[in-house]
């Protein structure tokens, strides 16, 4: 039997919590780690935070762009090696990366902070009033007829 790996979709979307909870229950999808490692947290009813471990990267080496429901985080590390020192073992990642996150409708980036090697990107989902559900009053048939007659007179 063939199985489909939905982990790339699961790891790169924000605001589709219910959909992926259902997929987890049905298919038992597991996350596959990627570079750089990151967490997606729900910090409020309509607020999210993406935290990425970007140790060794400075603010000038990171860029964040939000365009058409896609959040892109790029890191370009410029390795400067002095002539007098040679690295015997390189365990600290210095490679460039690009991570894309598909955002749900009406999810906006509120800001980003770099603190202790962690990049925090705060997101919020703001649904416009026109798209929010609203209650419709049900009128009594006789009352509706009287209202129409009063408008006609």
From TrEMBL:
The keyword Lyase does not apply. Keywords: Stress response. It comes from the Bacteria. InterPro entries: A-crystallin/Hsp20_dom, ACD_IbpA/B, HSP20-like_chaperone. Transmembrane segments: none annotated. Gene3D superfamilies: 2.60.40.790. The keyword Ribosomal protein does not apply. Residues 29-141 form the SHSP domain. Belongs to the small heat shock protein (HSP20) family. This is Molecular chaperone IbpA. It comes from Prosthecomicrobium pneumaticum. The lineage of its organism: Bacteria, Pseudomonadati, Pseudomonadota, Alphaproteobacteria, Hyphomicrobiales.
């Amino acid at each position: 039997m063939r199985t489909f790996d939905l982990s790339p979709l699961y790891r790169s979307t924000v605001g589709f919590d219910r959909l992926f909870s259902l997929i987890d229950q049905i298919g038992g999808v597991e996350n596959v780690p990627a570079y750089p490692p990151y967490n997606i947290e729900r910090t409020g009813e309509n607020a999210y935070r993406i935290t990425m471990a970007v140790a060794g990267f400075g603010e000038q080496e990171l860029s964040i762009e939000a365009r058409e429901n896609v959040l892109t985080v790029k890191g370009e590390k410029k390795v400067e090696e002095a002539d007098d020192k040679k690295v015997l073992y390189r365990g600290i990642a210095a490679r460039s990366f690009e991570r894309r996150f598909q955002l749900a409708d009406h999810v906006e980036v509120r800001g980003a902070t770099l603190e202790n090697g962690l990049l925090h990107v705060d997101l919020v989902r703001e649904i416009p009033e026109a798209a929010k559900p609203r209650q419709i009053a049900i009128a009594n048939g006789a009352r509706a007829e009287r209202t129409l007659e009063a408008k006609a007179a």
